[in-house]
């Protein structure tokens, strides 16, 4: 972008690249990009990474991303739900009710019919 168009990539550009590479299962490249970015990864990027990790069954990286999402956006239901689903996929059934209980204690509810992709789209439509 910089060399061809003279434009510095912003967070939305990095979010898209991480989402694409993550869904392609290219986690080494994702981690390289996230480390080399001039800004700290945001909750949207971590949610994209978490979703990709669930698809490709990358539990360790997904758990790390999920905990980051919860730290960066503690009131967002998506991080809790995605991480809970990742725990279930990895047969870490003891963690699922703990995470769901944490949501309830904080008064966080998942709106019916709201998926991760919708949350992602709402964020980018608003910006």
UniProtKB/TrEMBL annotation:
One of its GO terms (molecular function) is RNA binding. GO terms for biological process: RNA modification. It comes from the Eukaryota. InterPro entries: E_motif (IPR046848), PPR_At4g14850-like_plant (IPR046960), TPR-like_helical_dom_sf (IPR011990). Pfam families: E_motif. This is Tetratricopeptide repeat (TPR)-like superfamily protein. It comes from Actinidia rufa. The lineage of its organism: Eukaryota, Viridiplantae, Streptophyta, Embryophyta, Tracheophyta.
């Amino acid at each position: 972008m910089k060399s061809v168009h003279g434009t510095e990539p912003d967070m939305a550009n990095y979010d898209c690249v991480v989402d694409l590479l993550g869904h392609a299962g290219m986690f080494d490249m994702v981690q390289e990009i996230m480390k080399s970015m001039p800004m700290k990864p945001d909750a949207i990027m971590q949610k994209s990474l978490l979703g990709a990790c669930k698809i490709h069954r990358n539990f360790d990286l997904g758990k790390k991303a999920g905990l980051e999402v919860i730290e960066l956006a503690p009131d967002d239901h998506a991080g809790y739900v995605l991480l809970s689903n990742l725990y279930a996929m990895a047969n870490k059934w003891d963690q699922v009710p703990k995470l769901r209980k944490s949501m309830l204690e904080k008064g966080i509810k998942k709106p019916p019919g709201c998926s991760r992709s919708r949350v992602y789209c709402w964020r980018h439509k608003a910006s």
